[in-house]
């Protein structure tokens, strides 16, 4: 009987010792993370039940909310095993202001990332555009967290009428920033190598036409007759004096180039097949390069000929 009571006492004592040891340890942890308005904790700590003293957790704002500048978004498990209390740091905010082609958000407003309802951002006209009125475009963060439409108060600048090339004409729709004008050479003239058109673009902080290509006389050719009849005769009349042939070389060229290309393709296919059988799976064919190296110079030579 006495030894039974003693054993019982020992069990009680044991439980007490365990409690004494465990309770302070339990008291040394913070409980689950508090809910904060407009904010959520990181996914990996959301469901955690206890956190050691000193733990810092940074919240993020939920959709439609953004962090208010200069307010802290990090709570800490304090010495007294309680989470620190933060003033509200997430508030309703629009996303970044809308992008438009004719203007960009002013540098001052661009760097913000908190746009409260009612906030207005200003825009400045993009290069190539200028303000059409005294006002600059603005946009306001509306109650439903969308931005008001940006009024198109910047208009494209004009390059003015471009110079007309000698021995050619310009095909153009307007003279505004971004426009393109094609240069067409008169019969018997051809464009210098380079782009066959000009564009109204930014040049030294203002808009200007890109350099005008020139039309120069095709060598050894009289401006007449019209090119289409020349092409027709070129195909049928093979033996002709060299001087006449040069005017027609652009019609003969395809006759040379096409067999060249077919030749390259045939060689390429043959190479792929052969190499493919020899080392299956490892060979990466690059037939165009190989073909160009072999055939290129001879084609090139005739093109730039007399
Ligand atoms: C464009 O803005 C400038 C400066 O803000 C102003 O001086 C100018 O008059 C404006 N242009 C037009 C066409 O209103
Ligand atoms: C937001 O509100 C503005 C004006 O109040 C309205 O024109 C617009 O359609 C609304 N947008 C959405 C997505 O509800």
Number of DSSP strand runs: 19
Shape: elongated
Uncertain ranges: 226-252, 279-306
Overall domain count: 4
Q: Treating each run of at least 4 consecutive H or I residues as one helix, how many helices?
A: 6
**And the CATH topology of the largest domain?**
Complement Module, domain 1
Bound molecules: 2-acetamido-2-deoxy-beta-D-glucopyranose
The strand order across the widest sheet is: 14-15-17-18
Order of helices and strands: HEEEEEEEEEHEEEEEEEEEEHHHH
Largest sheet: 4 strands, antiparallel
Mean pLDDT across all amino acids: 78
CATH C-level label of the largest domain: Mainly Beta
CATH structural architecture of the largest domain: Ribbon
Q: Give the amount of beta strand, in percent.
A: 15-25%
* Structure class: alpha+beta
Taking all Cα atoms into account, the compactness measure Rg is 40 Å
Protein name: Complement decay-accelerating factor
Keywords: Disulfide bond, Membrane, Repeat, Signal, Sushi, Transmembrane, Transmembrane helix
Pfam family, one: Sushi
Task: Describe the structure in your own words.
The structure is a single chain. With 306 residues, the chain is of the alpha+beta class. The chain folds into four domains: 28-92, Complement Module, domain 1, CATH 2.10.70; 103-156, Complement Module, domain 1; 168-217, Complement Module, domain 1 (Ribbon), CATH 2.10.70; 246-303. It contains six helices and 19 strands. A four-stranded antiparallel beta sheet has the order 14-15-17-18, with no helix packed on it. It has a three-stranded antiparallel beta sheet with strand order 9-10-12. The radius of gyration is 40 Å and the shape is elongated. Bound molecules: 2-acetamido-2-deoxy-beta-D-glucopyranose (2 copies). The site of one 2-acetamido-2-deoxy-beta-D-glucopyranose (NAG) has 3 residues, from loops. One 2-acetamido-2-deoxy-beta-D-glucopyranose is lined by residues 131-134. Residues 1-28 form the signal peptide. This is Complement decay-accelerating factor. Residues 92-156, 157-217 form the Sushi domain. InterPro entries: SEZ6_CSMD_C4BPB_Regulators (IPR051277), Sushi/SCR/CCP_sf (IPR035976), Sushi_SCR_CCP_dom (IPR000436).
């Amino acid at each position: 009987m006495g030894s039974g009571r003693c054993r019982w006492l020992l069990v009680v004592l044991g439980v007490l010792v365990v409690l004494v040891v465990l309770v302070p340890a339990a008291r040394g942890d913070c409980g689950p993370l508090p809910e904060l308005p407009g904010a959520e904790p990181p996914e990996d700590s959301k469901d955690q039940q206890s956190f050691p003293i000193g733990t810092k957790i940074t919240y993020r704002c939920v959709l439609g909310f953004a962090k208010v500048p200069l307010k802290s978004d990090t709570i800490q498990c304090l010495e007294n095993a309680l989470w620190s209390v933060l003033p509200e740091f997430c508030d309703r905010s629009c996303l970044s202001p809308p992008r438009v082609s004719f203007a960009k958000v002013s540098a001052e407003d661009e760097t913000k990332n908190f746009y409260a309802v009612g906030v207005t951002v200003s825009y400045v006209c993009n290069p190539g555009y200028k303000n059409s009125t005294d006002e600059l475009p603005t946009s306001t963060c509306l109650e439903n967290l969308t931005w008001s439409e940006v009024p198109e108060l910047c208009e494209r600048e004009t390059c003015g009428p471009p110079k007309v090339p000698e021995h050619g004409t310009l095909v153009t729709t307007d003279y505004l920033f971004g426009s393109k004008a094609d240069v067409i050479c008169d019969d018997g003239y051809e464009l210098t190598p380079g782009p066959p058109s000009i564009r109204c673009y930014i040049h030294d902080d203002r808009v200007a036409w890109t350099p005008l290509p020139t039309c120069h006389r095709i060598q050894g050719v009289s401006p007449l007759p019209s090119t289409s009849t020349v092409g027709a005769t070129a195909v049928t009349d093979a033996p002709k004096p060299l001087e006449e042939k040069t005017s027609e070389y652009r019609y003969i060229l395809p006759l040379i180039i096409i067999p060249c290309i077919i030749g390259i393709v045939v060689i390429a296919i043959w190479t792929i097949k052969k190499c493919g059988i020899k080392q299956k799976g490892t060979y990466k064919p690059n037939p165009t390069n190989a073909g160009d190296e072999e055939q290129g110079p001879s084609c090139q030579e005739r093109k730039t000929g007399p």
